[in-house]
User: Fold these one by one.
Assistant:
Number 1:
Amino acid sequence: MAPRNKRRILVGTDFSPSAEIAVRRGGAVAQECDGVLEIIHVLSRGDTPVYRVTGWAENRRAVEAEAMRKLRGLASRARARFGISVHPELVRGSPQREIAAYAASIGASLVVVGPNGEHAVRDMLIGSTAQPLQRALRVPLLIARNRLVRAYRRVLVTTDFSRASAEAART
């Protein structure tokens, strides 16, 4: 684990092309602020075999091993590309809950996700994981839709004039 004083940028991945964009965007932000990149993948119930099926334990281990192999590959590529510390994390549960809980546990400064999901119309606007995740998080959320062209120069902050909005603007 990296020192607590470094900014931690958390990227949620489902290994899709849009999640790859999120990893690149998160890596660029971590590099810019001399931070640490954390990459999390959440295995949900639908990702692993049901325990009543013969051979379920073996299948579950195989699914977990494959997900960890992919995570380590993403981490290795990000480390090489950005020259930063990168930590992969594999957890089980609901993606929204687990990403929010992990962000809180590591003191993430920012969470980055891609806009993909299973509901095409809604996902075009905000994404199926991103929408409930934004409500669960206590830190800023960046939805990376496009490939990184250059570093951010300006940030647009919207507000509803609440204390939470003021706190988000300070981060």
Number 2:
Amino acid sequence: MRFGLQTTLLKKISRRYALSLFNSAIEIETLESVQLDILLISQMLSSSAEFNDFIFAPHLEMFPNEKILNELLKTRVQPLTLDFLILLCRKNRLNLLKEIIASFETLYHQHHGITKVMIISASPLDSQQVDAICKKLKNRWHREIFAETTLDPDLIGGFQIKSGDKILDLS
């Protein structure tokens, strides 16, 4: 029970930070650039073990984390994004970065009328198949579709589409 409450609290905190960044980006008209920064940081977390370790490893006070962030990202991201990351560092909230990124992306998609879906299939889908599925969903839901794909070897054939807490099972 306690773990569930803690997880819920961390999600709320992450959403508040994401909302703060989102609203600030809208206010100074840099939303699209900040979204690109968020994608870059997400990609760095996925592809760089060193960056991932820096963000999520327990830090000792003697390490100049803000300085490292500044040197690493100052020429790669918007000043707003860098200031936001330094704020997370100062508040010891870098450990929430993945959740903050997910919340920011949700806010961005909602702002642009985009529905994010996960297409789960038994075998890999090529880009034409994914595009055809997205086109049908767009016509059905009257919204732009952002699709990610994943494999589930337990499916015998076909695919499932997951959007939020809804699943459309076409397997």
